[in-house]
């Protein structure tokens, strides 16, 4: 087992390593190096950087096997580094850029202040995350790409691993741009769908569903889930929604869903479920981001979700591991037959 000092100093070094990774992502180094190796002066010219400063970053990136020397003062892209190409199928470039975005970077750096008074330093400076993104189109674009890429394995897992009722109507609450709903409908050709989200999102969602050839099976409805959600659905999906809100707000959302759903309907919650032990888990890392960025946002354990659902007259049922740290929680009305 590593000595505790090694763990601590490793965590300290991780800040420098991530900063080099962020520089690689921001400057698009992987895209520039994709055709072949370049000397650092030419690479600096292509990405608009200061050559002596870039050389120092390349040295750090080489130590992480993201680039490798290919001659005197020349570097090429490694297989690991290729994951930062914009066109890579599993590209992590937008994810890295999003975590280094000004507001996110500030939020994590100010976590001690947030912990001191329990109120997000990010919110104090930037307001609610989605308001901040609305004011900053470039950040919003990065966030959308980050969320889309993060959702791909979860969305595919949802469509393949959950047995949807063959002729159900699914209401995707806060369904965003419509990618999850489209995937589910393609996998279940007799289902219909309703995408429900704020008005400024619904135009984009309608375009996505139309481009997927689903306009005849999917409806887009604008509204506020704190007021009400579309009634009469058989399945209500809440994907990465409840973790943005404190317990009281989460219960309000769930109660509105419970009131709207058919008597034999079900709620599907796609979120990280925290383990009950102290073992490392991706959800614990994400939970600190939620603490830093939202007032009241949190990842929760199975028991905590069961408690929220109970307050909304819903009963927790099956919990399916979906990979990538996430789980699918199924809930039904507490008075449902069987």
The count of domains is 3
**Could you tell me the radius of gyration in angstroms?**
22 Å
Query: What oligomeric arrangement do these chains adopt?
Result: single chain
The total strand number stands at: 11
CATH architecture of the largest domain: 3-Layer(aba) Sandwich
- CATH fold topology of the largest domain: Rossmann fold
Structural category:
alpha/beta
Order of helices and strands: HHEHHEEHHHHHHEHEHEEHEHEHEE
Structural overview:
The protein is of the alpha/beta class and 338 residues long. The protein folds into three domains: 4-84, Arc Repressor Mutant, subunit A (Orthogonal Bundle); 92-152, no CATH class; 153-333, Rossmann fold (3-Layer(aba) Sandwich), CATH 3.40.50.150. It is 50% helix and 18% strand. The chain has helices spanning 4-27, 29-33, 40-47, 51-63, 93-99, 102-109, 111-117, 121-126, 129-135, 137-161, 179-187, 199-211, 247-260, 282-293, 302-311; strands at residues 38-39, 67-71, 74-77, 169-173, 192-197, 218-222, 235-239, 266-274, 300-301, 314-323, 326-333. Strands 4, 5, 6, 7, 8, 9, 10 and 11 form an eight-stranded mixed beta sheet that branches. A three-stranded antiparallel beta sheet has the order 1-3-2. Helix 14 links the parallel strand 8 and strand 9. Helix 10 runs parallel beside helix 11. The longest helix has 25 residues, at 137-161. The protein is globular, with a radius of gyration of 22 Å. The chain starts with a helix and ends in a 5-residue tail after the last strand. The model has no long low-confidence stretch (mean pLDDT 93). Pfam families: Dimerisation, Methyltransf_2. It comes from Nonomuraea turkmeniaca. One of its GO terms (molecular function) is O-methyltransferase activity. This is Hydroxyneurosporene methyltransferase. Residues 17-84 form the O-methyltransferase dimerisation domain.
């Amino acid at each position: 087992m590593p000595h505790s000092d090694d763990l601590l100093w490793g965590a300290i070094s991780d800040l420098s390593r991530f900063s080099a990774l962020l520089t690689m992502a921001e400057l698009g180094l992987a895209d520039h190096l994709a055709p072949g190796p370049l000397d650092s002066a030419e690479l600096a010219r292509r990405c608009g950087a200061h050559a002596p400063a870039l050389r120092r970053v390349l040295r750090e990136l080489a130590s992480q096997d993201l680039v490798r020397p290919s001659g005197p003062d020349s570097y090429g892209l490694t297989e690991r580094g290729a994951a930062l190409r914009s066109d890579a199928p599993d590209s992590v470039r937008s994810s890295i850029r999003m975590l280094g975005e000004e507001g996110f970077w500030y939020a994590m750096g100010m976590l001690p202040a947030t912990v001191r008074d329990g109120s997000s330093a990010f919110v104090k400076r930037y307001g609610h995350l989605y308001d901040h993104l609305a004011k900053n189109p470039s950040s919003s674009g990065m966030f959308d790409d980050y969320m889309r890429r993060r959702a791909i394995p979860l969305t595919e897992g949802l469509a393949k691993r959950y047995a949807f009722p063959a002729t159900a109507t699914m209401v995707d609450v806060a369904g965003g741009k419509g990618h999850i709903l489209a995937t589910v409908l393609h996998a279940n050709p007799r289902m219909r769908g309703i995408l429900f989200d704020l008005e400024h999102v619904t135009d984009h969602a309608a375009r996505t569903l139309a481009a997927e050839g689903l306009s005849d099976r999917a409806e887009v409805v604008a509204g506020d889930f704190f007021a009400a959600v579309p009634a009469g659905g058989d399945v209500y999906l809440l994907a990465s929604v409840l973790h943005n809100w404190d317990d009281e707000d989460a219960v309000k959302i769930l109660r509105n869903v419970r009131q709207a759903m058919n008597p034999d309907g079900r709620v599907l919650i796609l979120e990280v479920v925290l383990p009950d032990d102290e073992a490392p888990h991706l959800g614990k890392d994400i939970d600190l981001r939620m603490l830093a960025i939202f007032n009241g946002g949190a990842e929760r354990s199975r028991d905590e979700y069961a408690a929220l659902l109970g307050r909304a007259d819903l009963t927790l049922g099956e919990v399916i591991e979906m990979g990538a740290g996430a789980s699918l929680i199924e809930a039904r009305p507490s008075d449902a037959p069987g």
